[in-house]
Amino acid sequence: MxxxxxxxxxxxxxxxxxxxxxxxxxxxxxxxxxxxIILAHYYQKGEIQDIADFVGDSLQLSQQASQTDAKIIVFxxxxxxxxxxxxxxxxxxxxxxxxxxxCSLAESAPVAQFREFLRNYPEHIVITYIxxxxxxxxxxxxxCTSSNAVKIVNSFPGEQKIIFAPDKNLGNYxxxxxxxxxxxxxxxxxxxxxxxxxxxxxxxxQYQEAKIIAHPECxxxxxxxxxxxxxTAALLNYTKQDNCSTxxxxxxxxxIHQMKKANPDKIFIPAPxxxxxxxxxxxxxxxxxxxxxxxxxxxxxxxxxxLDEDIRKKAEVPIKRMLEL
Length: 325
Ligand code: 13P
Ligand code: SF4
What we know:
Blueprint: H1 5-10, H2 23-33, E1 36-41, H3 46-51, E2 54-56, H4 58-67, E3 72-76, H5 79-88, E4 93-95, H6 104-107, H7 111-119, E5 125-129, H8 134-137, E6 142-144, H9 149-154, E7 162-165, H10 168-178, E8 183-184, H11 190-193, H12 197-206, E9 211-214, H13 220-225, E10 228-229, H14 232-241, E11 246-250, H15 255-262, E12 267-270, H16 291-300, H17 309-324
Parallel strand pairs: 1-2, 1-3, 3-4, 5-6, 5-7, 7-8, 9-10, 9-11, 11-12
Bound molecules: 1,3-dihydroxyacetonephosphate (13P) and iron/sulfur cluster.
């Protein structure tokens, strides 16, 4: 008997695992038997990235989720990402190793307040970052990710009035790049807002040859000192193509796993947050997924993402528009 109560209390099935089993072998066996695909975001723990069928940024993961012919999608990322996969593949079972893997940025846009906010701007179209709940997507005209945000915004004429939500930092970055004056929702990611400019500059003084590379969810002072700004996939590509030997990475530290794999001779230093002695910049939500939870999730096919069909259909429209562009 499995204790489903632990699912609602803890967000995952709390089942003890025989210590003698080899988790990697068991996961491999199960995914083959069940025709499952394991998708992992770049912020996952290295061991999860290594076992995944596909590792990518949020745009690449939603593209994979819309194209796969697997029967089950195991999403090792956060809730809104798994939800996006379910929106795009309603006929598939989408499971997430820990339902409590949320996102502070997605949570910074509660649906009732957002609906109220929109009432003030009847002439504006609504562009939302993919880091939102399905209910917020259902209120949007088009979605974007950090990889394609500028392209999506530029696909509208300059005079078009736009609301951009929920990330004020990404919104401000796009306003600066495009010269637009989009109305910004006041949301942010707790990981990217926490980087300390002082500590980054101290590191730069210590490693003078290093380049600072940053995610656009970072605050403006960090973006100003950055040599390059991009989505997780763009930052990874940059380290592959650029010839510098050392980089200070102002995004979640999970991405460094792929950077090191692709560039074994280069040095990657995580940018430190303000209040931390460990100097790390982990997303506590992303890091809730573990190999053990992945195994249990695949074995029992729980926790599963379930969506209201009406919301799903409405949320599908802005995501599909983005994918078509
Ligand atoms: P990417 O779109 O770059 O994958 O970023 C997702 C995210 O959650 C950033 O914090
Ligand atoms: Fe959300 Fe920030 Fe974590 Fe990305 S790093 S999943 S935006 S909380």
